[in-house]
Design goal:
Layout (H helix, E strand, L loop, with lengths): L12 E5 L4 E3 L5 E3 L2 E5 L2 E7 L5 E9 L4 E8 L9 E9 L4 E14 L3 E5 L1 H9 L5 H20 L4 H7 L8
Antiparallel strand pairs: 1-2, 1-9, 2-3, 4-5, 5-6, 6-7, 7-8, 8-9, 9-10
Length: 172
């Protein structure tokens, strides 16, 4: 039996424009941002969403850790058993805008219960296809492992782990 190959896409890039108060998603859609808050360790974003499965998105972009932690506020009937969704990638702070490049791996955190790694197949396919080089692919895996270890060591509590690193986060 042969496995179907997944359709691989280039890394998703987003822009977080602090001056325009917008978030430009990977498809180029410009979304108004309700709240941006900069801290020495990261950027908080809160915005409404026009997605059928969620109506509001909150994210913390944490460049030094190579992660973006999010809470999706799901619409009724689309709830998921997750507290936080974490993207692994490269996150760059700019004077007026921040930029993210997603490196395929994602984590689902169920506070107090588990932290699950997703999309390893996408990362491996991106590397095999030449979309991601070996160094970037390895860094994504190391970042995911370090993040899982840190969250797990704090009882699968993202906030507790980040506080232990001097990065206390709050949500709306």
């Amino acid at each position: 039996m042969s496995e179907a190959r997944i359709h691989i896409h280039p890394p998703k890039v987003e822009t977080f424009d602090l001056e325009a108060r917008t978030n430009i998603d990977p498809k180029g859609f410009v979304r108004q941002v309700e709240t941006y808050r900069e801290e020495p360790w990261g950027l908080y974003m809160g915005r409404h969403a026009d997605h059928p499965q969620f109506h509001y998105l909150e994210s913390w972009i944490l460049p030094d850790l190579g992660i973006r932690a999010s809470i999706f506020h799901f619409t009724p009937g689309h709830e998921r058993d997750q507290d936080h969704y974490i993207d692994i990638g490269t996150f760059t702070r700019g004077e007026h805008a921040w930029r993210s490049e997603d490196h395929y791996l994602d984590l689902i955190v169920q506070t107090g219960r588990s932290t699950e790694l997703l999309d390893v197949d996408e990362l491996l396919e991106a590397h095999a296809s030449g979309i991601l080089d070996a160094q970037t692919s390895e860094q994504a895996m190391l970042t995911a492992a370090r993040t899982i270890d840190g969250i797990a060591a704090h009882g699968h509590d993202l906030g507790a782990w980040l506080s232990s690193l001097g990065m206390p986060i709050t949500w709306r």
